[in-house]
Amino acid sequence: MYFSADAGDGFHIWRQRFPKGVPEQITFGPTEEEGIAVALDGHSLVTSAGVRQSSIWLHDGTGDRQISSEGFASLTGLGFGYAAAHSAFSRDGKRFFYLVRQGSSRAFVSGQLWVAEVDSGRTERVLPGVSMTDFEIAPDGEQVAFASPNSEGSSRVWVAALDRRTPPRQLAKLEANHASFGPAGEIFFPSARGQLRFRLPH
Fold it and tell me: What is the dihedral of CA 2, 72, 63, 96, to 10 degrees?
């Protein structure tokens, strides 16, 4: 049998002998393949191949304009995933934060954190090489709390300085997939032990 499956690097075509064969991946590369039509002689198949794209647009008093242009961009909690919606703008409204999905990510909404300057349209990665599934910017605009999956697929909560002066720091070894800042700058996140709170040093 032939089927399309995502084993961690996007959807590709696989085949498996019935009834107890070992699954074998037969398409590879940066594109994803979905949908299969196998020829009657079994020697060839047709599939749909392409690259997923998603962009973020801003609507304001001047109209609509595209913010992101880097692959599959998303906002957590706004139509995808489990997270609660929160503001992706900095406190002064001059910067906008979003995720750009990485090709090897298993999560539909995950990727690296990017920031865009609203007025100029300039964009850049905030924490290069760090993948996350959810984030929240601190009220003072200096830190970000985020959930990041480890190599086993379990999510942990981290905090990092947006100016990259210090490396990201894991808050606890407990599994959690969402974090939020309190009014005093403390970080709350749910876990199997209930709601936890971390007060960060000044």
Answer: 150
